[in-house]
Amino acid sequence: MAIKKETLAQFCEENQSLVAIYTYEKVHEINIPLFHMYVNTK
């Protein structure tokens, strides 16, 4: 995907909460076990 960094940065700024929610959900969907493993090793 050829997206200019400026455009992507602008998109992220304008849709910060949306991006945050999407990222949060994706991270939890994929990485909950990894995250718990990481936390438990600290």
Would you kindly provide a brief summary of this structure?
With 42 residues, the protein is mainly alpha-helical. It has one domain.
Unreliable stretches (pLDDT < 50, length at least 5) are none
Give me the count of strands: 0
Major β-sheet profile: none
Continuous helix count: 2
Tell me, what's the shape? elongated
Helix content: over 70%
Kindly state the mean pLDDT as a whole number?
Answer: 77
Radius of gyration: 14 Å
Q: Which structural class should the secondary elements be placed in? A: mainly alpha
Q: How large is the share of residues in beta strands?
A: under 5%
Explained architecture:
By secondary structure, the chain is mainly alpha-helical. It has one domain. Helices cover 83% and strands 0% of the residues.
Could you outline the blueprint of secondary structure elements for this entry?
Layout: H1 5-14, H2 16-40
Keywords:
0% strand; mainly alpha; elongated
